[in-house]
Amino acid sequence: MSRELRLRIISGVILGILVLAATWAGGIWFRSLAVLIMVLMHYEFSTITNATARVPLANAIGWMAILATAVFILTSLPQMALAAIFIGGCGAVLAGVTRGGGLWSATAVVYAGFSGLALAEIRGEGHFGLFAMLFIFAIVWATDILAYFCGRALGGPKLAPPISPGKTWSGAIFGAAAGVGAGVGVALIVRQGGGIMIPLIALLLSIASQIGDLFESWVKRRFGAKDSSRLIPGHGGVMDRVDGLVFAAFAAFLLANLMPLADRAGGIDELAARLLGL
Description:
By secondary structure, this protein is mainly alpha-helical. It contains 11 helices and 2 strands; from the N terminus they run αααααααββαααα.
């Protein structure tokens, strides 16, 4: 086993334990994890796109918005966090309007800010939020693992050659199938069945996860970056590890808020109830 692979395994195991521990604990522990992910994502995205040099004022506005969002997430004020993301994004665009570079700073705010907010709101405080996060984790991890190994083993037509030459349709299809299987498995453990909505939601989140992976690959290729950073030994950056997770969280958060209101649940419990059919 090479030193690089050994380092990758060790850091992956440590990160997995920390993430699952924070997810199990919930509350301020998971909100703090969501905020940490958000801040590091904003740093990496801004660094990749060279936002500081492009439009310093837009980047400064972006950082102020992210810090405000962090405070609102930690104090459980999601509406205020959403407002900070929106205002920060608009402010970054306006600050860079004369030089045309504020859009990347605005994208950094929305991408990172909504990632932190979606993760924090899905987990919430109750045990339904724990089930919902485990449901999403299972789908994203199964999709990622099977897409990688099946894509390498089976090969075939490329999924998006200009963006990520290594990804194949076979990997995407088997990854999606694995994601659906993992989601259904979690739902069966949590409750008996869940109807046709469970595999449909799992498929949607699996596809969203793969889109997130492609989006980050596109940004890195656009700016000639191999990894989002070197913050995680053997893995690259935070964005490299959570690109699929945050897009799945986006989809879950939006889906839950677009679905009809449940009669017997509210807040984050309602969110998880919708995701798992509880």
